Amino acid sequence: MEEKIRIDFAKLVKRVATDKTGDFIKFDENKCDGCGKCTLVCSFGLWSVKEGKAKISPRYREFCLECAACWEICEAEAIDFSYPAGGTGVVIEYG
Ligand code: SF4
Ligand code: SF4
User: Which of 36, 42, 50, 91 has CA atoms 20 to 30 A from the CA of 68?
Assistant: First the structure.
């Protein structure tokens, strides 16, 4: 029987100074074509698409894993990702 492994990302990482990260993901609505690929790759489901345009959760800085998958998958280049300043953002504890 196939065994499924579930990873609780929230327990794998901790956040450091989330109030100092700034907006490390930027989104240009004008470039977005509503393809929905960002919603498929984000482990935390931080992207959604409504009425043909993507939207990122206003609380993404609390949950984002900084994997950059959304930036990588967006062919329209509507998403801009840069790592938060050193000493802020995600720290992998058991990786
Ligand atoms: S992948 Fe890019 S173009 Fe597609 S819905 Fe997301 S932001 Fe918009
Ligand atoms: S960087 Fe990764 S976790 Fe963060 S919003 Fe993009 S896909 Fe989601």
Answer: 50
34-68 as b/e: b if 16+ CB within 10 A: ebebbbeebeeebbeeeeeebbbeeebbebbbbeb
Rounded to the nearest angstrom, the distance between the alpha carbon of 60 and the centre of ligand 1 is: 16
**Structure pTM?**
0.85
Helix/strand/coil percentages in the chain, nearest 5: 20, 25, 55
Ligand with minimal distance to 67 CA = 2
Q: Domains of the chain by range and CATH?
A: 9-92 (3.30.70.20)
